[in-house]
Amino acid sequence: MSLIQAENLTKVYGTGDTAIVALDHVKLSVNPGEFVAVMGPSGCGKSTLLHLLGGLDRPSDGNVSIDGQPLAKMSDNAITQLRRRKIGFVFQFFNLIPILSSIENASLPLLLDGGNSAKTKQKAIEWLTKVGLGHRLASRPDQLSAGQQQRVAIARALITDPILVLADEPTGNLDTKSSDEIVGLLKQVAKEWGRAVLMVTHDPRLAAYADRIVFLKDGKIVNETQLESKRTDNAESVSQMVKANA
How many separate domains does the chain show? Predict the structure, then answer.
């Protein structure tokens, strides 16, 4: 069974003549351990899709199920708990608290959920080490590079052992080298640690890391392409797909 199942997912902002259809009857499924990239022009509904899948917003029509649980049948409090415990979020802006260390920032989701501070600290150290920051545990955000800050954000997203990670333009503030490292890390999150990862990106080179690419245009899925993991020209192929679906 799919980990994420979206059926006829629709989001309309406004009413009447001023109504804007951000998503238009989207159908999408994502399996455990799958890395999916979502692409499309600005304003096509990419971020709206992630917000609906993550329970950050309610659809105008249609439904999302995560791990067999329909979000439409859940209370706001239940959705909040689902987000806190089963979904990890990674955003373009790292959203780290400036006065906190890497350990303290990574620990926040568990501490806010009432976790034991000693166990939470140990788990934060484990995840920070896994994402390559075992040597910067006590560093504050202003003492870290942009790429390192995003690694802290990824550790924070993973500390609750989520089944799903949603990444919205996670490399938007990074240079090319750091971008490759972060997307490679997200691929590791899917392949080695078994999480489903859904990443919004505008960069064909980074989308080529994914198992599958979903193209959105005017709120609709216009193409889905499965990538071959052993091909070395995936980035070029994705660039051609972007032009074809523009």
Answer: 1
